[in-house]
Specification:
Chain lengths: 440, 1056
């Protein structure tokens, strides 16, 4: 035992976990890369596939791994997790996949790491996919970009607003291709909804309702013994130390989603979990990708029954409400409404949907696959549909709501300076103290 | 045959179905109180009376209900009885006999408790006078929950109780938060000055409720309660939970908690009731000055005192807390912190208490961390920096204390962190402190941190490098610069470089000239080819500031991929028209691979100044360059670009043609449509086709006439494109010309395109078939055109064209006949059903099946024909086929026909093994349709009105307003002689006004069968003459806010 004692220490690198292998890259893949895009891959040096590393091998990553194993232009090289079992299982699956593809029964080119810093230091890894718990997202992404990697990072992008600022600055500094996993942007119904709104099909928009769950809570669960194979101290990483509880980080066989999302130290609750989708769409529809609201008022039961945002252009956005039903986001304009959710798009009046876009209309970034959009941009060095600043600005809206819920007072926000106006105590919450040795 | 029935059997069947589906019957059967529940009550009771009664006291608990019956009455009564026994505060008499209110009977009591009573309990004047005399003469009244839901017709009672019930926006399953309006009031003693959460049905009150008359003790905490519930009417946020008042010489205490059973084993609520009862009986004198007359200062004072007392308790609870314990005090502390953030004295007291817990011996990690988190939010300036510094250096406490302080804006914190750093020797403590200094941008720490770059502990050196990067002052940058490659520096080179780049960016953005110079020097250094690729990539953005955008052109050919990639991003993101022009100038001299990239960057930049340069690239020898240029022109091009794109759109390279067509569709700016229209005269047909398609893509309705002209183009491919375009952008005005073009069209593909366009355009005219028929008349010897026009008529399904189609379906010519039959089969309303039947019966070959399938499809459409006839038509159709798929279609259709005969026809196929499942499903559907009920409110419980049980009911659950409705679907048309609406059991809930319709359509109701005003629990209606119809719709026409509309039982008198 002792693993569950408070140490205040970061983990040491474990010996024996890592088997570096730079030699396993499948040869003869230049043709696949060349067919990819208008920009020949030779423009980018490495005349072969995009070498990928994966950090955080939980439920969400299983899907990503499957996608990238099956893409001709990518080569999965390394996986990382702080829980040995899921790491070994995913490593076994990935090696088996390539063994099957290459006909090399003993294929062992997919390496496993406990410490992501070793993974991002590998020169043959070009890009990193991150699907850790939320409190690790920014840290891993920053260290990866500092090593010159492109990044696909799951949503919600950050735990705090300053983490997002650092991500944006770092992506810009090194010219990295960064995709935030808010994949609703690559779904037709959401793009269409936002195009209708942006092109005035419902008149001037004055109100938006965003239907997502609420803010996170303090994690006060009792302690339990740390399961074998889990480096709990590393799992916590920058978060304050607390004893393990299986509700936070269940075994990989647990059928549901792990509940770390409910707790403030690791996530922004449903507010960021779903907010990184639906508030993201609201920002897109309002054309606020580089900006954000200027006032955030928590519910007071009288004048403000709901958390209420106001944008500088007068648009009011509510957390919840609207006509409910199926809409994740409901835009209300002077001449109608647009209601959208996954697989659902409805307008009032219905004819709004039937008006095609003309040459003078605003066309939004069109992507039909969030993963492929990232890969295409890695090749062409274009900006992905949900690049770092978009992910950061959208989750900022969620964080602002969470802060207002937590401190229960109306806030004024300067989206230019990205700071609260005349409220030093609120500005404390733009960042969290991190446990050493972690820092953004 | 008419047979009078009071309750039809089928209604009972509905009940069975609902019961099977698991519908509970709320309140129907009084539940037994269990032993365990009594034990819980016993355990929750106060130990002793709040005050010793001056004399033996007697409480009448009155439980009569004339409206809704609360099943909490027995448990509440029992709890109050046990409370009196245990504390000796009073003894009770329980009764629902109104004679208890006779003066002689009442005289024995000190107070009356209305235990969840509802409705008009009595209307005898003598009893009412007696109760008033009792209270005004100095006795007491206690109201529990529904005690405000009584005597709506007796204003003096409402006045006495303090208000009338006005709905309960929060239901029995909702958890709400309650705040104490008057935390120091003796009757709030139970709550220790703290608000609380409770799960119960929460009332809203209407007049005479007023704080001018009542001393409100507790009310809903609207800031913490879901205020988005339906039914909230008050706009002042005033939802009182309990109050007391003087009434004459007497005293009244009311509390709205008491719907749920568990309220009566909630120790705090029971204590509250005991205090209220002792007050009402005269033993516990309290201040009853109405709330509105209290000075705000006095209220604030009372609240502050209570909070200060509560704070002590919360802090004590936190100090004793560990993970998994009850966290109520923690949540209260968090709320309190938010509430006092702008109140310096309270905030200071809270912070002092929390700070003590952080360093207190024997406190759990959980408590310490929670205290630190609260301090992060509320801690004001530091008052004991020395102590903070020593705690920050302590390996056991450093992380927690740093959590509390790192983000605090007090400048003293910076000095404290530095002091702690000097005395700390634990590696991770030092790393944490260094990071904190860095994030705080503590400029004065730069010197100390630069020394630490050479610290023996590599983790400390790395942290120092990052921290200096965040600090970003010239001194910090200088330290980092000198550390590069220096001997003894333990920080990794990459971390130092990243920090240095970060610092240089801060200096460059500082606005200070010399700092900018420093920054540019750093960028130049770090961009040196000798440096690592990542560092060079990171320096490139800065280098642009030094040497201009041209540096990126060179970087595109760098040997290292990371540098090239950074250059590509900067080409796109570096702002300014100069940057665009630099790229434009460089473009022709670049090798092909870089040129494609620069073109893409120019497209992303969106500056039209690059248009001409990109246009030239469309003819480049390199395919990737050509494609990139075409894609870029969609953004950069204008009317002048049309001819280039048109040529490419007509070209042989499929990818390029597609890109060019897309660009033509998206070119913005003035004159594009006109330029394209002018190009329609181009001698090359491929170009004409491409341009005519582009106009449709551009929704260029203004150019529809020009497009129409091309429907007469000599080239079929151009005509096809033109018909396709006119279909999208044409109007009804073009229908006639398109019809004519169709008649004249010789090419089969173009004719199909014309027909498709004609359908679309004819639909936009007032008489869709007219232009088609006019063209049809000219086609006597043009079979192909005739057949195409018949197809159009079928698609249009305009009845004006039906005769022509019918004749065609019987024509001699096989082609015309088939076209006619197919047009009938395509019809979108049921009109040609008999024609299709005839074809199915008498026709030849495969068309019979086409016709029969269409016939069944049309029968399923809504139509005016009597249901019996529809059944017969299905029956006849079924006899024409042996095909199982067609039979299945008919059987499924029959299941939807509202007629009893349908069942018999379906049942005829029950023995066919191929149809077994379909027949069973159809029969079940046909049978279950009968006696469906639904309602405007609580529709899932509508069955309770027809379940044969007077003890159950359907109710609106909200006050009566016009437009509420209840509908019975009898399944098919029947004769209704009358109905009985019975609300007995909720006697007041009869509809204040009603209108009853019987008919076959809910959309078209016709004349009402009965209407009137309700005047009692049971409303019997007889229809003279009897009414025929499938639906019975009962509509509320009256209104009364305070009472719901309920039907305990609906009885139908029905024949056949």
């Amino acid at each position: 035992m002792g693993a569950n004692q408070r140490t205040g220490r970061a983990p040491r690198r474990l010996p024996g976990m890592t088997r570096r292998s730079f030699l396993q890259r499948a040869a003869g893949t230049a043709a696949a890369a060349a067919a990819l895009n208008i920009v020949p891959s030779t423009a980018w040096g490495a005349n072969d596939r995009i070498g990928l590393g994966f950090v955080g091998m939980g439920k969400q990553m299983a899907g990503h791994l499957h996608v990238f194993l099956n893409r001709p232009q990518t080569q999965v090289l390394a996986l990382c997790d702080v829980e040995a079992k899921r790491l070994a299982v995913r490593q076994g699956e990935a090696n088996a996949f390539y063994a099957d593809r290459t006909g090399e029964a003993s294929y062992a080119g997919v390496d496993a790491y406990e410490d992501f810093r070793e993974l991002v230091a590998r020169p043959d890894i070009d890009a990193v996919v991150i699907a850790t718990p939320d409190h690790w997202h920014a840290l891993v992404a920053l260290r990866a970009m500092e090593q010159g990697k492109d990044v696909y990072c799951e949503k919600p992008l950050t735990l705090t607003i300053n983490e997002g600022k650092a991500l944006v600055a770092t992506a810009r500094r090194y010219g990295r291709v960064f995709q935030t996993g808010s994949q609703q942007r690559s779904s037709r119904e959401f793009r269409t909804a936002c195009e209708l709104v942006r092109n005035g099909r419902i008149g001037k928009v004055h109100t938006v309702h965003v239907n997502v769950g609420g803010p996170p809570v303090e994690c006060l669960l009792p302690g339990e013994p740390v399961p074998e194979g889990l480096n709990w101290d590393f799992w916590l990483g920058p978060a304050p130390w607390r004893p393990y509880n299986s509700d936070i980080a269940p075994d990989m066989d647990y059928p549901g989603w792990p509940n770390f999302r409910a707790y403030r130290d690791y996530s922004g609750g449903m507010m960021t979990d779903w907010g990184a989708h639906h508030f993201d769409i609201a920002q897109w529809g309002l054309g606020m990708d580089g900006s954000g609201p200027v006032e955030i008022t928590p519910p007071d039961g009288v004048a403000y029954p709901r958390l209420t945002y106001r944008y500088a252009n007068g648009v009011t956005m509510y957390h919840g409400g609207g006509q409910g039903g199926s809409a994740g986001v409901e835009f209300i304009g002077e001449e109608g409404r647009v209601m959208v959710n996954r697989g659902y798009l409805e307008t009032d009046p219905p004819e709004v949907l039937d008006q095609p876009l003309g040459p003078e209309d605003i066309r939004l970034y069109e992507s039909s696959s969030h993963h492929d959009n990232w890969l295409e941009c890695i090749a062409s060095r274009g900006k992905p549909i949900c690049h770092a600043e978009i992910g950061h600005r959208s989750v900022t809206v969620c964080h602002l709501g969470n802060i207002a819920y937590a401190i229960k007072r109306p806030l004024k926000w300067d989206p230019e300076a990205e700071a609260f106006i005349d409220d030093p105590e609120a500005n404390r919450l733009l960042q969290r103290p991190m446990r050493a040795p972690w820092t953004i | 045959m008419f047979s009078a029935t009071t309750r039809i059997v089928a209604a009972a069947a509905v009940f069975l179905v609902l019961a099977a589906a698991g519908f509970g019957l709320p309140g129907a059967v009084a539940q037994e109180i269990s032993r365990e529940q009594l034990d819980r009550v016993a355990a929750a009771l106060p130990e002793a009376p709040t005050v010793q009664p001056a004399q033996p006291r007697k409480l009448l608990i009155f439980t009569l209900c004339q409206g809704f019956y609360h099943d909490a009455i027995p448990i509440g009564t029992k709890a109050f009885e046990m409370m009196g026994e245990k504390t000796g505060a009073y003894e009770v008499v329980v009764s629902d006999d109104v004679e208890m209110f006779a003066p002689d009977a009442l005289a024995q009591f000190d107070a009356v408790c209305f235990m969840n009573t509802t409705g008009t309990l009595f209307d005898r004047a003598d009893l009412r006078d007696s109760l008033m005399a009792f209270v005004k003469g100095g006795k007491g009244v206690v109201g529990v929950h529904a005690a405000t839901d009584c005597f709506y017709d007796w204003a003096e009672f409402g006045e006495m109780m303090g208000g009338y019930f006005d709905g309960h926006p929060w239901g029995a399953g909702d958890t709400v938060h309650v705040k104490l309006d008057d935390p120091a009031h003796p009757l709030n003693r139970a709550f220790n000055g703290m608000g609380f959460a409770v799960r119960d049905e929460i009332y809203q009150f209407r007049e005479p409720y007023s704080r001018e008359k009542l001393r409100v003790l507790a009310s809903l905490d609207t800031a913490k309660t879901d205020m988005t519930k339906d039914g909230i009417k008050r706009t002042d946020g005033d939802f009182a939970i309990s109050w007391c008042r003087a009434f004459g010489e007497g005293r009244v205490f009311y509390c709205s908690l008491g719907h749920n059973w568990e309220i009566f084993w909630n120790p705090q609520v029971l204590q509250h009731y005991l205090d209220g009862i002792q007050f009402a009986m005269g033993d516990l004198p309290v201040d009853v000055t109405p709330s509105a007359q209290l000075s705000p200062e006095a209220v604030a004072q009372s609240q502050a005192e209570a909070a200060a007392r509560a704070l002590e308790g919360w802090l004590a609870a936190l100090a004793a807390y560990d993970y998994g314990d009850d966290d109520a005090a923690l949540m209260a502390l968090a709320d309190y912190g938010a509430a006092v953030i702008r109140k310096p004295a309270e905030r200071e007291a809270l912070a002092t208490g929390l700070a003590a817990i952080v360093s207190q011996e024997g406190v759990s990690d959980a408590a310490r961390l929670f205290a630190a988190k609260q301090l992060l939010e509320v801690c004001p300036a530091l008052t004991a920096p020395g102590k903070a510094a020593s705690l920050l250096a302590d390996p056991e406490l450093s992380e927690t204390v740093r959590y509390a302080l790192e983000r605090n804006e007090d400048p003293v914190v910076g000095r404290v962190l530095m002091r702690a750093l000097r005395s700390a020797d634990d590696s991770m403590v030092r790393v944490g402190l260094i990071h904190a200094l860095g994030h705080r941008r503590e400029a004065r720490a730069a010197a100390a941190l630069s020394r630490l770059l050479s610290d023996a502990d590599p983790a400390v050196a790395e942290a120092a490098a990052r921290a200096l990067g965040w600090i970003g002052t010239p001194r910090a940058a200088d330290a980092l610069l000198r550390a590069r490659g220096a001997e003894g520096v333990a920080a990794p080179a990459r971390v130092i470089d990243d920090a240095l780049l970060r610092a240089a960016q801060a200096l460059a953005a500082s606005g200070d000239g010399s700092q900018r110079e420093t920054a540019l020097a750093i960028f130049t250094d770090l961009a040196d080819p000798e440096e690592s690729p990542v560092t060079r990539a990171g320096a490139l953005g800065g280098l642009v500031e030094v040497e201009g955008v041209s540096v990126l052109i060179a970087a595109l050919e760098d040997e290292d991929a990371l540098v090239r990639q950074a250059a590509a991003a900067l080409l796109r993101d570096t702002e300014g028209a100069d940057a665009t022009m630099t790229l434009v100038d460089a473009l022709p001299g670049l090798p092909a691979s870089q040129r494609a990239l620069v073109i893409k960057a120019l497209a992303d930049r969106g500056d039209p100044a690059a248009k001409a340069a990109v246009e030239i690239q469309v003819e480049d020898a390199d395919g990737a360059v050509r494609l990139a240029a075409l894609e870029a022109l969609a953004v950069l091009g204008d009317a002048e670009t049309v001819s280039i794109l048109a040529r490419k759109a007509a070209g042989a390279d499929a990818k390029e043609a597609q890109a060019a067509r897309r660009a033509l569709g998206r070119l913005a700016g003035p004159g594009v449509d006109e330029t394209i229209a002018a190009g329609l005269q181009d001698p090359r047909p491929e170009i004409r086709a491409a341009l005519v398609a582009a106009l449709a893509e551009r929704l260029a309705a203004d150019q529809a006439d020009a497009v129409l002209g091309l429907t007469r183009d000599p080239e079929p491919a151009v005509r096809i494109a033109a018909f396709g375009s006119i279909e999208r952008i044409g109007s009804g005005a073009h229908a006639e010309a398109v019809a004519q073009a169709l008649v004249d069209e010789a090419d089969e593909g173009a004719r199909d395109a014309a027909a498709s366009a004609l359908v679309e355009l004819a639909r936009k005219t007032e008489a869709p078939a007219a232009c088609v028929l006019a063209a049809f008349d000219q086609t006597a010897d043009n079979t192909a055109a005739r057949a195409a026009l018949l197809g159009v008529l079928g698609e249009l399904s305009d009845d004006a064209g039906l005769d022509v189609v019918r004749q065609a379906a019987a024509a001699e010519d096989a082609t015309i006949r088939e076209a006619g039959i197919r047009a009938l089969a395509a019809w979108s309303n049921p009109a040609p059903a008999p024609d299709l039947f005839r074809v199915a019966k008498e026709g030849r070959d495969a068309l019979r099946i086409v016709a029969l399938r269409a016939y069944f499809r049309l029968l399923a459409m809504p139509d005016d024909r009597p249901a019996a006839e529809t059944v017969e038509m299905y029956d006849l159709g079924l006899q024409l086929t042996d095909q199982a798929d067609l039979k299945k279609m008919a059987i499924a259709g029959l299941a939807d026909v509202p007629h009893p005969d349908a069942e018999a026809v379906i049942a005829r196929y029950a023995d066919d093994p191929e149809l077994e499942a379909d027949v069973a499903a159809a029969l079940e559907k046909a049978r279950s349709r009968a006696f469906a009920v639904r309602a405007s409110h609580n529709t899932e419980q509508a069955g309770l009105a027809v379940d044969g049980e007077m003890g159950t009911r359907w109710t609106t659950g909200v006050g009566q307003t016009p437009g509420q409705w209840f509908v019975v679907d009898l399944g098919w048309e029947r004769t209704v002689h009358g109905i009985v609406l019975d609300a007995t059991g909720s006697d007041g809930d009869y509809p204040r006004g009603y209108r009853v319709h019987v008919g076959n359509s809910l959309e078209d109701l016709g004349e009402p069968a009965a209407e009137g005003e309700g005047s009692g629990a049971r409303i019997e209606l007889t229809f003279d003459p009897p009414q025929r119809g499938r639906f019975i719709r009962i509509e509320q026409t009256g209104s009364i806010d305070s009472l719901w509309w309920s039907i305990h039982e609906l009885t139908l008198q029905i024949a056949d």
